[in-house]
Amino acid sequence: MVLTNCKKTYDYKIKDLPDLHLLKVLGLRKGIDFKVQSKQPLGGPIVVKVGNRSIAIAKDVAKEIVVQEVS
After folding, report:
1. Which residue, among 66, 67, 37, has the nearest Cα to 52 in the 3D structure?
2. How large a percentage of the chain has pLDDT more than 70?
3. Fewest beta carbons less than 10 Å away: which of 21, 54, 61, 70?
4. What kind and span of H or E run contains 36?
5. pTM for this one?
6. Which residues on neighbouring strands pair with residue 51, listed in sequence order?
7. Regarding beta strands 66-70 and 33-39, do their DSSP bridges make them parallel or antiparallel, or are they unpaired?
């Protein structure tokens, strides 16, 4: 599943993501656990919570981030 399909109440793990410098700077990489904090309307960003940090990810980038639900 991709990040744009995630629901707010579940835990997820990043399985694959595009090789973008900005994602690395933000600390997003394979294996990171996160929760979706909010999904902005009208094509706005998806805000994820990684540890105690909130990170906004553009919807076009979020479509390329493959995730897995963590049970």
Report:
1. 37
2. 100
3. 21
4. strand 33-39
5. 0.91
6. none
7. unpaired
